[in-house]
Write a structure and sequence with these properties.
By secondary structure, the protein is of the alpha+beta class. It folds into two domains: 11-128, 2-Layer Sandwich (Beta-Lactamase); 135-300, Reverse transcriptase/Diguanylate cyclase domain (Alpha-Beta Plaits). Helix content is 42%, strand content 26%. The chain is built from ten helices and twelve strands. The chain has helices at residues 11-19, 39-46, 50-53, 66-82, 127-141, 151-168, 182-189, 191-206, 233-247, 276-292; strands at residues 24-28, 34-37, 86-93, 99-110, 116-125, 172-180, 214-219, 222-228, 251-253, 256-258, 261-268, 298-300. A five-stranded antiparallel β-sheet has the order 2-1-5-4-3, with helices on both faces. Strands 7-8-6-11-12 form a five-stranded mixed β-sheet, sandwiched between helices. The longest helix has 18 residues, at 151-168.
């Protein structure tokens, strides 16, 4: 854009545009030293004075977390050594300990001989967009009442765990949990009381489980628990028994005591149960046998 078209525009004008732009602008040389960094990245992203940022050597300073550092170094080398334009997303560390997720578009700046002189990077803070995306994804996979995983997540996760167990030649158990006595509570005392009971059930179901065990609400008062790596009747039975004990404790809802229980069907990944549908059907059938046998107990699938 020439001064003949915009005679009032000059180098100082463009320097001010870059300096106070609402995005990060960074220039790096072949020694990985910062030649220029605008106010946005200094004050808002890394929380350091501009005079301190300019001249620093990035690999020797904690402005990028360890898990991203090598990837950022490799990216920078490719742009400077190969002269290619690339994009990268990485976390940036602020001096106060917080993190911002940055999306960078980087291009090589060439000298008069066509050789790469500097790397020019323009970056946007996409932290809030990522949080919103994760929140939406979380909403799609969570039961809004109990905050447990929902049926959609359960079916996807069980399919993944079955595939992983088959690949690694490990085991998997599925618990199908149905509350005993929930319908009378819901009918006599209203949905608000029923909802409070279900929220408390969710809390109790989570207790005593390992980090990789998954609890889901798949409908009304029905829940499932995926137990990766569990193969023995003793281990699965002990987990189910402790669940029944916890779920059978009185529920104090607004000063009114409600007594419920639970029946659990247990199925293992194996012959006749190699798919999501097959495993769920076996665990569901075992749960109904538990109810027919007197409720408040667990039964293994045939």
């Amino acid at each position: 854009m020439s001064e003949a078209i915009h005679p009032g525009w000059h180098a100082d004008f463009f320097r001010e545009v870059v300096e106070f732009a609402d995005m990060a602008v960074l220039v790096i040389n072949h020694n990985f030293e910062v030649v220029y960094a605008n106010d946005y990245i200094c004050s808002r992203i890394v929380g350091m004075p501009q005079a301190e940022v300019i001249g620093m050597s990035l690999p020797r300073h904690q402005t990028v977390p360890d898990e991203d550092l090598q990837r950022v170094i490799d990216h920078t080398k490719r742009v400077l050594e190969l002269g290619v334009a690339e994009r990268i997303e990485n976390w940036a560390l602020h001096r106060d300990g917080s993190r911002r997720l940055m999306y960078w578009s980087t291009v090589p700046k060439l000298d008069a001989d066509g050789k790469v002189e500097h790397l020019l990077a323009v970056g946007m803070d996409v932290t809030e967009q990522r949080r919103e995306k994760h929140a939406l994804e979380n909403m799609a996979h969570r039961d809004s009442l109990t905050d447990l995983h929902n049926r959609a997540y359960f079916e996807r996760r069980l399919s993944e765990d079955i595939a992983r167990a088959n690949q690694e030649e490990t085991s998997l158990a599925l618990l199908y949990v149905d509350l005993d006595g929930f319908k009378p509570v819901n009918d006599r005392h209203g949905h608000e009381t029923g909802d409070s009971v279900l929220r408390e059930v969710a809390v109790r179901l989570r207790k005593g489980l390992r980090q990789n065990d998954i609890v889901c609400r798949i409908g009304g008062d029905e829940f499932t628990v995926i137990l990766p790596g569990v193969s023995s009747n003793d281990d699965a039975g002990m987990i189910a028994e402790q669940m029944i004990i916890r779920l059978s404790q009185p529920y104090d809802i607004g000063g009114v005591i409600h007594n419920l229980g639970a029946s659990i069907g247990i199925a293992f990944l194996g012959e006749g149960a190699q798919s999501v549908q097959g495993l769920v059907c076996k665990a569901d059938a075992a749960m109904y046998r538990a109810k027919q046998s007197g409720k408040g107990r667990f039964v293994f699938a045939d």
